[in-house]
């Protein structure tokens, strides 16, 4: 994200309008280079990097703009810059069937009650691909969800976008506290599991077992503050991130026992910040951000 003095034409009347959103939470991805947004409160233009993802705060379809969150700031963007990637919504009736395939003939995976929360990833004809709160993935017929007419990335395009580059404001919810994920080191391809246990400005994670800690040390050559590009695997998604291989904070932040290390590791996403040091406020770490960009270009 970069502030600029570039001109941005947007009607003042539009800026004063705030329609009431009827959705739970929407995630959008910047789909083109040269995309810009406008912060009306502080009156500056922001250049938005292609592929970065942001929470959509308001959809003003009639005005051809969206209001998104960019590192805690409300920013207006032209809707042509943004592709909707995920919607958090809920079921509208009892007995909603989650199926293995996008068909009424698909194997039944689970039956949901009214008001249950699901994350919608993409659309396949009249079916939505969803991830449930327990991580189960399947398909639900669109009329059984709160908004049956979501505007989503088509299935083919969604699945082609292998590595997602998430802003921290989005990533902190995609990888919530308590989540167990697989970390893949970009340089070596080696993997190990971690659990997110703490962290507000970034994710504090801990290896799950002694074997995971040994794998971590084999990659970093022992415990090290080196920032390395990694892929975070969660619920079938691949997220670009950066990890430092040094456990710290000791027993004060030690949510996983018996894993051969004490304390937490720092896992960073776009815009996340490192720890506050003394009177120095938490700031974005340029080495972590550079590693994230390397991870974003990862190819299997």
UniProtKB/TrEMBL annotation:
Extract the coiled-coil ranges from the record.
none
> What is the residue range of the signal peptide feature?
1-24
Q: Which residues form the SH3b domain?
A: 95-142
Q: Which InterPro entries match?
A: SH3-like_bac-type
Protein name from the UniProt record: SH3 domain-containing protein
Instruction: Print the keywords alphabetically.
Output: Signal
Q: Which organism is it from?
A: Holtiella tumoricola
Specify the superkingdom: Bacteria
Instruction: Kindly indicate whether the keyword Lipoprotein belongs to this entry.
Output: no
